[in-house]
Amino acid sequence: MTLKLAIAGAGGRMGRELARIVHATEGCTLAGGLEAKGSPHVGTDCGELIGAGRLGVAISDDPAAVLAGVDGIIDFTIPKATLSLVALTAAQKKIHVIGTTGIDAAGDDVIREAAARTTILKTGNFSLGVNLLAALVRKAAAALGEDFDIEVLEMHHRMKIDAPSGTALLLGKAAADGREVSLKEKSVRVRDGHTGARNSGDIGFATLRGGSVVGDHTVIFAGNGERLELRHVAESRELFARGAVRAALWAKGRAPGLYSMMDVLGLN
């Protein structure tokens, strides 16, 4: 049976890319689009917005109505919108694929509770390459130990609104997991002024913003006399959209729970 999917934030750059990939992917169909109230895209046909011709799927500002007509929704929006939407996906027992970044610990708790009632797949990055990179980072961190300092460097386009990126945090968590420590306790997000020497075991983050960079992430393991760098460069948003649609198809028929791209790829 074809999986009917809706796109949250359907009028945005990522929303349009998601809609295009859903429409082009065998096994699923573009069946709904959602935007915030007051958006100029409300009422626009999703097909016309992505250059596929009229599909008879109008973008709506009524999330409950959109969810009622689909099997699931792919959501790359903002934390406030995602947390509002997750209450509805849980109530209607719809698949919820979440690529939204910048969600805080309290928001993660809300999502975890909702996953007891429906199938939620959330990750900091839907790229196959990034998730393979995370697996490598975890192994490297475990093998090298604290003799090697870990730094995560990321760069994105000038319009990105959260930092560090969800991908940088995913990679930092992989490093922390490899060392069997808490990222929250070891994370260093800001260095300014007279900081003193670096603490052994810290996992540092550096953020760059500019231009139209889609995503550039490097995890540096710096030891005495040698340095290992593991890097991923994203050249198109299409790779995130393809990963998210693959995740939605994987989630079809799964029991309620909170899953990640690592589950989809069998890397856990």
Structural class: alpha/beta
Give helix and strand order, one letter per element, not per position.
EHEHEHEHEHEHEHHEEEEHEH
Described by the principal axes of the CA atoms, the overall outline is elongated
How far is the N terminus from the C terminus? 28 Å
Oligomeric description of these chains: single chain
| Total count of strands | 12
- Sheet with most strands: strand arrangement: 3-2-1-4-5-6-12
- Averaged pLDDT: 95
Task: Give the helices and strands, then pairings.
Layout: E1 3-8, H1 13-24, E2 28-34, H2 46-49, E3 59-60, H3 63-68, E4 72-75, H4 79-92, E5 95-98, H5 105-114, E6 119-122, H6 128-144, E7 149-156, H7 166-179, H8 183-186, E8 187-188, E9 203-209, E10 215-222, E11 227-234, H9 238-251, E12 257-259, H10 261-265
Helix pairs in contact: 1-9, 4-5, 6-7
Describe the structure.
- The protein has 268 residues and is of the alpha/beta class.
- The protein has helices spanning 13-24, 46-49, 63-68, 79-92, 105-114, 128-144, 166-179, 183-186, 238-251, 261-265; strands at 3-8, 28-34, 59-60, 72-75, 95-98, 119-122, 149-156, 187-188, 203-209, 215-222, 227-234, 257-259.
- The strands form two sheets. Strands 3-2-1-4-5-6-12 form a seven-stranded parallel β-sheet, with helices on both faces. It has a five-stranded mixed β-sheet with strand order 8-9-7-10-11.
- The relative contact order is 0.16.
- The mean pLDDT is 95.
Question: Any descriptors?
Answer:
single chain, 268 residues, alpha/beta, seven-stranded parallel beta sheet, five-stranded mixed beta sheet, 10 helices, 12 strands, 37% helix, elongated
